[in-house]
Amino acid sequence: MCSVEKRGNIFILTLKSDDNNDEHRLNPTLIATIRSAIADIKSQSISDPQTPFALITTATGKFFSNGFDLKWAQSQSGKFLTHLHQMVDSFKPLVADLVSLLMPTIAAINGHAAAGGFALALAHDYVVMRKDKGVLYMSEVDIGMTFPEYFNVLFREKVGWKWRREIMMRGMKLKGEDGVKMGVVDEVVVGINGDEVLEKGLKLGEELLKKKWNGEVYCEIRKGLYPDLCNELGLIRKNVIVPRL
């Protein structure tokens, strides 16, 4: 499950634990819930195009997200691969939702982000992370799975080739400072609990809002930075001019 809170012009989307999913694993229900929340956020931004907004995605507990819910797939009447592909296919539009959102996006990583959880964070414009706890980890090579093509393109366009090799072919577990060195994490935060990460995300969000960027222009510039990813996600790029002078 997830919730959305608004502080000023910053939306805070929080993945919340329940009795069956305290690792925020990406099963169809959670993916659909996140997409619904983002759709509502996008609708609000479209209805007020003169106002700048920002999005922060964070989570409660020890995990940002532990990736796809393999236990859920295994529990579905012996059709593991069918349901695994269902999750992979349903997560792709969520990545597209973030890439096409009309505002800056920030992942405030409070704990571990593995596999699809790592990809979820990387789909944001900025990543802030705890220094003391949590790792980023692409587990596929260790558990015996290849990557969906949109994962390959996402990492190819956002991470340098040497670091992709370490992350995707060696399954390297990155702490916050490793992520900064590799260009995956923008800033690490020292603190007693995960609240400091959210506060850092809010501070960054406030700095970005001061620019008063047009959301549609910002979004199309983002798309231009990742043309292969947009092609893979089926996103159409367009020219937008909103003079500010």
TrEMBL record:
Gene3D superfamilies: 2-enoyl-CoA Hydratase, Chain A, domain 1. Keywords: Lipid metabolism. InterPro entries: ClpP/crotonase-like_dom_sf (IPR029045), Enoyl-CoA_hydra/iso (IPR001753). SUPFAM superfamilies: ClpP/crotonase. The keyword Lipid metabolism applies. It catalyses: a (3E)-enoyl-CoA = a 4-saturated (2E)-enoyl-CoA; a (3Z)-enoyl-CoA = a 4-saturated (2E)-enoyl-CoA. One of its GO terms (biological process) is fatty acid beta-oxidation. One of its GO terms (molecular function) is delta(3)-delta(2)-enoyl-CoA isomerase activity. Pathway: Lipid metabolism; fatty acid beta-oxidation. GO terms for cellular component: peroxisome. This is Delta(3)-Delta(2)-enoyl-CoA isomerase. It comes from Chenopodium quinoa (Quinoa). The gene is LOC110698070.
